[in-house]
Design brief:
Blueprint lengths: L5 H26 L3 H34 L3 H6 L4 H28 L5 H24 L3 H6 L5 H21 L1 H14 L6
Length: 194
């Protein structure tokens, strides 16, 4: 995988995707300020996040796999701190998958209340705590990784761009379901007569 820049390229890909995720998650978080009227936007951005999150999980998963398979470059970088590796990372991954999966389920079953909404909210609380620790422990490495130029930078940028395009397509495909949920919420409070 030399054409991709090895472990340096992997770190840069992870940093690029993390930067994109920080922006998208800020938008998603802003929708929580008035979820009742921004539910469609919340659902759209949530669906847009899925391919980008998948790329981040693939990038970090590749680093983990290469480290444990004793890839020389990855072993030289060393493992993350034990607490991050054993506790924060697994909780972050599981809560992220749960958060996105319950969001997809809510769109699929057209629900704005009930057990799945409870699971979505609970996974968000766990995710928020784990993700906060994750971001705080990794933030200092973000800018240096973004500034470097390694072999395959154009490929990494194209991969991130492709994940965004896939996310936009997924979000667009699910807009009717999101709009249906928005109509249900608006109708239940007497805002929308549909």
């Amino acid at each position: 995988m030399r054409g991709w820049g090895g472990s340096d390229g992997n770190e840069q890909l992870t940093a690029i995707v993390a930067t994109v995720l920080l922006v998208l998650l800020a938008v998603e978080g802003a929708t929580l300020l008035n979820l009742r009227s921004l539910l469609t936007v919340h659902a759209f951005v949530g669906m847009l996040l899925i391919p980008v999150v998948a790329l981040k999980l693939a990038s970090t998963g590749w680093r983990m796999l290469r480290y444990y398979l004793r890839g020389e470059e990855y072993v030289l970088r060393g493992p993350p701190h034990t607490a991050v590796r054993v506790l924060v990372a697994p909780v972050t991954v599981v809560s992220t998958v749960a958060l996105l999966a319950t969001g997809v389920a809510l769109l699929a079953i057209h629900q704005t209340h009930g057990a799945v909404v409870g699971l979505h909210k609970a996974s968000f609380v766990v995710w928020l705590g784990a993700m906060s620790v994750h971001v705080l422990t990794r933030m200092f490495r973000l800018l240096p990784a973004l500034r470097q130029r390694f072999a395959g930078t154009a490929l990494r940028l194209a991969l991130v761009g492709a994940s965004l395009v896939a996310g936009l397509a997924l979000g667009a495909l699910t807009l009717p379901a999101a709009d249906h949920l928005q109509d249900d919420v608006s109708g239940s409070v007497g805002v929308d007569a549909r």
